[in-house]
Design a protein that fits this description.
560 residues; alpha+beta; D-Maltodextrin-Binding Protein, domain 2; Dipeptide-binding Protein, domain 1; Dipeptide-binding Protein, domain 3; 3 domains; five-stranded mixed β-sheet; four-stranded mixed β-sheet; 29 strands; 29% helix; globular
């Protein structure tokens, strides 16, 4: 239900039983309330700090950017911006801002807010992944106020993804300037902040948040959007997001009419299609998922090198023969058949095939345990009584994490664990709630192996926070001061060259070479891409979901 952002109003009476958050069924729902479900509580209400969908799903309707990407045409369109000009050398973008825009507290939006947003992004005191997106070859973009409604961006080099990147949320200077200057920004707008204090430019505001139960949104009375007839947007004046961590419970809530939209699991598609006409909802296949689900091993020396001693896990997880052996032990077809009921295909490349201009077709690591054992032997490992040891006779044992409550990932984990155990590894399976898992990956780095997914999109450089060695989400070794390996340095170079190149065919060559390096070095071991489905009630109109995002969600209607 989110907008396409790199990666995103009056309240009707809410019928809630506080003990279980049971909304009334379809026939009794308030006529103009959209009810959806999310799997986790938000981790933050600060959009510049949000790195996980549990937060961005909530914040996308509350904030807006200067531009947005049309997921049907892949063209960048104005949002808070009205128009822009680009200099002949493609290094200066002058952007005219809309004059009819106000924050949700009624304060006017101006060029000051745009300049301030970039001050936040570039602040050394703020750990934001957006800094990776707007740092080009180690250099920052200069942002200048020309007048109250004009901003000039001066780029160190031509930067093709820049206009799409400006879909990032714009922050209110009048609210957040003081916390930034007092080094309190990262503690501002956390989940204990009263919702009324969260001020944005998007179509909605947050009115209530009850942990583990629900989040309520109402239409932003100052939102600038209007339809062709001059009616204020959004059409849907009220939204509720139920926090339902169990997927079975989400399914029941949808078919019982308690929610309006649901992303079905593969095993539910046939039954939903058969009951759709009687239950008054639609089931649509919206295409191949653009994100990537993968297994990754922690290569962070800050975690494994302590007191002058090297944890043997660090040597295993940086051993290419070990990584290739794991890749050959993954039965992707079993995952497709058993978990996705055939609605999927093996994931080989970081960029999916439904972005054909940049996608590179490569040979996959085939499921072959014999080949995996040979690679482990080449890598210095050996077996004793069926158990795997390294050359120093350390038993190969590590912790394996994924997010609990996600049935598909738990079933995939079971398949993976079976074959890793067959190779003699001792794998300690430790599912965690999603936000705790994210904290391990991005804050304390206390993990060995993870099964998780990243969202995707059309522009490869939007993955800079993952792919650049300096990236905050460079999961296997975050925020490297200098590239830890030659191949990471080469990926850095290819990413930057691709971003600087405006000739699509030429920039595709850089990104294809980058994909080959990732395939060879295996910092992320791709698993499967599934076909995405969405089910939604027939009372929902102008709902335009795609795998690249939901286009113009403020235009959605509910039948009266």
């Amino acid at each position: 239900m989110s907008n396409t952002r790199p990666t995103t109003r009056l309240v009707f009476i809410l019928f809630v039983v506080l003990g279980g958050c049971n909304f009334r069924k379809f026939e009794s729902l308030p006529k103009n309330m959209l009810v959806t479900a999310v799997t986790s509580d938000p981790k933050t209400f600060n959009p510049i700090l949000a790195n996980e969908t549990s937060s961005t799903d909530v914040l996308d309707p509350v904030f807006a950017g200067l531009t947005r990407l049309n997921p049907y045409t892949f063209q960048v369109e104005p949002e808070l911006a009205q128009s822009w000009t680009i200099s002949s050398d493609k290094r200066v973008i002058t952007m005219r801002l809309r004059k009819d825009v106000y924050f949700s507290d009624g304060k006017p939006f101006s060029a000051n807010d745009v300049v301030f947003t970039f001050q936040v992004i570039y602040s050394p005191e703020v750990l934001s992944s957006y800094r990776d997106l707007f740092t080009i070859n180690g250099k920052q973009i200069k942002v200048e106020k020309v007048d109250d409604h004009t901003v000039r961006f001066i780029l160190p080099v031509p930067f093709y993804p820049f206009l799409e990147s400006l879909s990032i949320p714009v922050l209110p200077e009048h609210i957040l300037q003081r916390p930034l200057f007092e080094n309190l920004f990262e503690r501002t707008w956390n989940i204990i902040t009263p919702p009324a204090q969260i001020v944005g430019l998007g179509p909605y505001t947050i009115t209530s948040y009850v942990p583990s139960q629900y989040i309520l949104l109402k239409a932003n009375p100052f939102y600038y959007g209007k339809d062709d007839a001059g009616a204020h947007l959004p059409y849907i004046r009220n939204r509720a997001m139920l926090i339902v961590q169990n997927q079975d419970a989400q399914y029941v809530k949808f078919i019982s009419g308690e929610t309006d939209v649901y992303n079905p699991r593969p095993q539910e598609i046939a039954s939903l299609e058969s009951m759709s006409k009687k239950r008054h909802f639609t089931v649509r296949n919206i295409g191949l998922d653009t994100g990537i689900m993968f297994v990754s091993f922690n290569r962070n020396p800050r975690h494994y090198l302590k007191n002058g001693k090297v944890n043997p896990k660090y040597r295993w997880f940086t051993n290419l023969d070990f990584l290739k052996a794991v890749a050959h032990s993954i039965d992707k077809q079993a995952i497709i058949d058993d978990v996705y009921r055939g609605y999927g295909e093996p994931a080989v490349s970081f960029i999916p095939r439904n972005v054909p201009v940049y996608h590179l077709t490569m040979h996959d690591y085939t499921y072959n345990l014999t080949e995996a054992r040979a690679l482990l032997k080449d890598g210095g490992f050996h077996w004793k009584d069926g158990k795997l040891y390294d050359h120093d006779n350390n038993r190969v044992e590590f912790d394996f994490f994924t997010n609990s409550g996600n049935e598909q990932r738990e079933r995939i984990a079971a398949i993976l664990l079976t074959d890793l155990t067959a190779l003699g590894m001792k794998v300690n399976y430790k599912p965690l709630d999603f936000n705790t898992l994210v904290e391990k990956l991005t804050t304390n780095y206390d993990w060995d192996c993870v099964l998780i997914a990243l969202t995707g999109g059309y522009e490869p450089y939007n993955g800079a926070n993952v792919l650049l060695s300096s990236g905050m989400l460079h999961i296997w070794d975050p925020a490297e001061k200098t590239p830890a390996t030659k191949w990471e340095a080469e990926v850095d170079s290819l990413m930057v060259k691709g971003a600087e190149e405006y000739d699509i065919k030429k920039r595709a060559l850089y990104y294809k070479k980058m994909q080959q390096i990732l395939h060879d070095e295996l910092p992320l071991i791709p698993l499967v891409r599934q076909e995405d489905f969405v089910a939604y009630t027939d009372r929902l109109e102008n709902y335009r979901p795609t795998v690249f995002g939901n286009y113009r969600p403020e235009m959605m209607r509910l039948k009266q």
